[in-house]
Amino acid sequence: MELTHYQESSIQIITGDRGVGKSTYCLRRIEEAIEKGWKVAGLLSIALIREGEKLDIEIEDVKSGKKHLLASRISNSINGPRLGPWFFDEETIKWGNELLMRATPCDLLVVDELGILEFDQKQGFISAFDILDQGDFQLALVVIRPEYLDRALSNWPRSEVIWINQQE
Fold it and tell me: What is the pTM of this model?
Protein backbone atom coordinates (compact mmCIF):
# COMPACT_ATOMS: atom_id res chain seq x y z
CA MET A 1 0.00 0.00 0.00
CA GLU A 2 1.43 3.37 -0.99
CA LEU A 3 1.12 6.37 1.28
CA THR A 4 -0.58 9.44 -0.11
CA HIS A 5 -1.56 12.75 1.44
CA TYR A 6 -5.24 13.11 2.25
CA GLN A 7 -7.46 16.18 1.94
CA GLU A 8 -8.44 15.83 5.59
CA SER A 9 -7.16 13.69 8.44
CA SER A 10 -7.62 9.98 7.95
CA ILE A 11 -7.37 7.09 10.40
CA GLN A 12 -6.42 3.58 9.38
CA ILE A 13 -7.03 0.93 12.00
CA ILE A 14 -4.48 -1.86 11.67
CA THR A 15 -5.79 -5.12 13.10
CA GLY A 16 -5.10 -8.83 13.08
CA ASP A 17 -4.23 -11.67 15.40
CA ARG A 18 -1.21 -11.67 17.69
CA GLY A 19 2.09 -12.05 15.90
CA VAL A 20 0.86 -11.52 12.34
CA GLY A 21 2.89 -8.38 11.68
CA LYS A 22 0.81 -5.33 12.65
CA SER A 23 3.85 -3.50 14.02
CA THR A 24 5.94 -4.61 11.03
CA TYR A 25 3.27 -3.14 8.75
CA CYS A 26 3.47 0.15 10.66
CA LEU A 27 7.28 0.15 10.49
CA ARG A 28 7.16 -0.22 6.71
CA ARG A 29 4.71 2.69 6.42
CA ILE A 30 6.96 4.80 8.70
CA GLU A 31 9.97 4.05 6.51
CA GLU A 32 7.98 4.92 3.38
CA ALA A 33 6.77 8.19 4.94
CA ILE A 34 10.30 9.20 5.95
CA GLU A 35 11.52 8.50 2.39
CA LYS A 36 8.80 10.85 1.11
CA GLY A 37 9.85 13.58 3.52
CA TRP A 38 6.77 13.32 5.72
CA LYS A 39 6.84 14.46 9.33
CA VAL A 40 6.31 11.27 11.38
CA ALA A 41 5.45 10.96 15.06
CA GLY A 42 4.02 8.52 17.56
CA LEU A 43 4.80 5.19 19.15
CA LEU A 44 5.77 1.83 17.69
CA SER A 45 5.69 -1.36 19.80
CA ILE A 46 8.63 -3.71 19.43
CA ALA A 47 8.45 -7.29 20.69
CA LEU A 48 11.69 -8.57 22.20
CA ILE A 49 11.98 -12.29 21.58
CA ARG A 50 14.43 -14.47 23.52
CA GLU A 51 14.76 -18.18 22.89
CA GLY A 52 11.63 -18.10 20.74
CA GLU A 53 9.45 -16.44 23.38
CA LYS A 54 8.14 -12.88 23.59
CA LEU A 55 9.37 -11.72 26.99
CA ASP A 56 9.47 -7.93 26.73
CA ILE A 57 7.92 -5.09 24.74
CA GLU A 58 9.65 -1.80 24.02
CA ILE A 59 8.04 1.30 22.61
CA GLU A 60 9.92 3.50 20.21
CA ASP A 61 9.42 7.18 19.54
CA VAL A 62 9.14 7.04 15.74
CA LYS A 63 10.46 10.59 15.43
CA SER A 64 13.66 10.24 17.49
CA GLY A 65 14.18 6.49 17.63
CA LYS A 66 14.40 6.62 21.42
CA LYS A 67 13.16 3.42 23.09
CA HIS A 68 11.83 2.51 26.52
CA LEU A 69 10.87 -0.82 28.04
CA LEU A 70 7.06 -0.86 28.22
CA ALA A 71 6.19 -4.34 29.43
CA SER A 72 7.82 -7.51 30.67
CA ARG A 73 6.79 -10.98 31.69
CA ILE A 74 9.48 -10.87 34.36
CA SER A 75 7.75 -9.50 37.46
CA ASN A 76 10.69 -7.99 39.30
CA SER A 77 11.98 -6.03 36.31
CA ILE A 78 9.18 -3.47 36.10
CA ASN A 79 6.87 -1.36 38.29
CA GLY A 80 3.29 -0.73 37.21
CA PRO A 81 -0.04 -2.30 36.29
CA ARG A 82 -0.31 -6.00 35.56
CA LEU A 83 -2.31 -7.48 32.73
CA GLY A 84 -2.27 -11.26 32.55
CA PRO A 85 1.38 -12.31 32.43
CA TRP A 86 2.54 -8.78 31.56
CA PHE A 87 3.83 -6.10 33.91
CA PHE A 88 3.69 -2.54 32.49
CA ASP A 89 6.10 0.24 33.41
CA GLU A 90 4.27 3.32 34.75
CA GLU A 91 7.10 5.70 33.82
CA THR A 92 7.17 4.43 30.22
CA ILE A 93 3.40 4.82 29.95
CA LYS A 94 3.74 8.40 31.22
CA TRP A 95 6.57 9.05 28.73
CA GLY A 96 4.47 7.62 25.89
CA ASN A 97 1.46 9.78 26.77
CA GLU A 98 3.62 12.91 26.92
CA LEU A 99 5.17 12.01 23.58
CA LEU A 100 1.73 11.53 22.00
CA MET A 101 0.55 14.90 23.35
CA ARG A 102 3.49 16.58 21.54
CA ALA A 103 3.23 14.43 18.39
CA THR A 104 0.91 16.62 16.35
CA PRO A 105 0.77 18.35 13.99
CA CYS A 106 2.38 15.74 11.76
CA ASP A 107 1.84 13.97 8.48
CA LEU A 108 1.91 10.41 9.82
CA LEU A 109 0.88 9.58 13.39
CA VAL A 110 1.46 6.03 14.65
CA VAL A 111 -0.23 4.63 17.76
CA ASP A 112 0.87 1.03 18.30
CA GLU A 113 -1.29 -0.12 20.12
CA LEU A 114 -4.55 0.58 21.97
CA GLY A 115 -6.14 -2.32 23.82
CA ILE A 116 -7.45 -3.53 27.14
CA LEU A 117 -5.48 -1.00 29.21
CA GLU A 118 -6.91 1.91 27.24
CA PHE A 119 -10.43 0.73 26.37
CA ASP A 120 -11.32 -1.20 29.52
CA GLN A 121 -9.09 0.15 32.27
CA LYS A 122 -8.65 3.78 31.14
CA GLN A 123 -4.89 3.38 31.61
CA GLY A 124 -2.06 3.03 29.13
CA PHE A 125 -1.80 5.45 26.21
CA ILE A 126 -5.10 7.21 26.91
CA SER A 127 -3.87 10.53 25.51
CA ALA A 128 -4.11 8.90 22.07
CA PHE A 129 -7.90 9.18 22.17
CA ASP A 130 -7.84 13.00 22.33
CA ILE A 131 -5.01 13.26 19.79
CA LEU A 132 -6.89 11.06 17.32
CA ASP A 133 -10.13 12.98 17.89
CA GLN A 134 -8.35 16.29 17.19
CA GLY A 135 -7.18 15.03 13.79
CA ASP A 136 -4.09 17.24 13.49
CA PHE A 137 -2.39 14.79 11.10
CA GLN A 138 -2.76 13.65 7.52
CA LEU A 139 -2.81 9.94 8.30
CA ALA A 140 -2.88 7.97 11.56
CA LEU A 141 -2.07 4.29 11.80
CA VAL A 142 -3.67 2.88 14.94
CA VAL A 143 -3.04 -0.73 15.94
CA ILE A 144 -6.11 -2.31 17.53
CA ARG A 145 -6.62 -5.98 18.39
CA PRO A 146 -9.68 -7.55 16.70
CA GLU A 147 -11.57 -7.82 20.01
CA TYR A 148 -11.52 -4.00 20.29
CA LEU A 149 -12.27 -3.23 16.66
CA ASP A 150 -15.98 -2.45 17.22
CA ARG A 151 -15.16 -0.07 20.06
CA ALA A 152 -12.48 1.65 17.99
CA LEU A 153 -14.89 2.07 15.09
CA SER A 154 -17.48 3.58 17.43
CA ASN A 155 -14.84 6.18 18.41
CA TRP A 156 -13.63 6.78 14.84
CA PRO A 157 -16.44 5.60 12.52
CA ARG A 158 -14.84 6.94 9.33
CA SER A 159 -11.71 4.85 9.81
CA GLU A 160 -10.45 2.44 7.21
CA VAL A 161 -9.77 -1.04 8.60
CA ILE A 162 -6.68 -2.87 7.37
CA TRP A 163 -6.56 -6.55 8.32
CA ILE A 164 -3.09 -8.06 8.55
CA ASN A 165 -3.46 -11.79 8.01
CA GLN A 166 0.13 -12.94 7.83
CA GLN A 167 3.62 -11.68 8.49
CA GLU A 168 4.61 -9.33 5.68
Answer: 0.91
